[in-house]
Amino acid sequence: MMFLTVGSQMPFDRLVKSVDAWAMRNPSATLFAQIGKSDYRPQAMEWVHLLGPEKYRKRFLEADLIISHAGMGTVITAADYGKRLIVMPRREGLGETRNDHQIATAKWLPDHFGICVAMDDTDMMRALDGWPGIVPCESTNADAKNDLVMVLSKFINS
Amino acid sequence: MKKKILAVSSGGGHWVQLRRLQQALDGQDIAYVTVHADYKMDIPSGARFYTVRDATRWDRWHLVVLLFQLLLIFWKERPQIVISTGAAPGYLSLRLGKLFGAKTVWIDSVANVEEISLSGQRIAKYADLWLTQWPHLAVSTGPHYKGSVL
Which class is domain B4-145? Predict the structure, then answer.
């Protein structure tokens, strides 16, 4: 199963359309989409607007591949669960977000994890065609997290 | 002695990052403030939970509603420490925290790789601990780098 998730705050029709187009050409693939506030209605995959956290987690765990906007929530969760991940950053110029931080995020993602970045429709088709070859995300750097937790504990208890 | 903590974030990645810092809050008297009622199932038993309006700096009316919601929460909770991973609800909470005499912590989202967020820049004066999660964004006058959730 492939799980598409685009965040809940703003629509991301470009991504939903792109994945749906691939799904139409690949009827044997099973996809499930959480489309948030997107207007486009998928034709070739099961979809909902928003899943509650428990159902979201279940879909995430079951999925062989996650397809998402370049939001840190999905990236961290994919790293935690060791999932393959394709992200498409939202673009400010297309009204998909309010600033281009997802482009910035997407630039360093491939270096830090095995995350596949698709900047546009063509990239997405290529990424989806070759999805079994994507390396699952590695779990995150425990040392950096422990450092931050320690500094925070110290501050709280001081 | 247990400290009264208010841990605040908006949805998605901000919430995921706040949750990853739970270990630092264990054993304290915690109240969470976020924007989706569903997130309640993520928090440890015994912690209190509030939801507020999911506002951004682009919708002023929502910001006003959010501010009043937060004021009520502060009135009730009287936190000693306010911690946030962003965005708008966290920014306003740190400002209120200072008014109510709390110590404040801002942890800028790890999503801000090239520059600290706008709310992160503006919160500087009101954050006792002002952190970025990227070493290359740290400056000696702050924000500081002390680790990252990733």
Answer: alpha beta
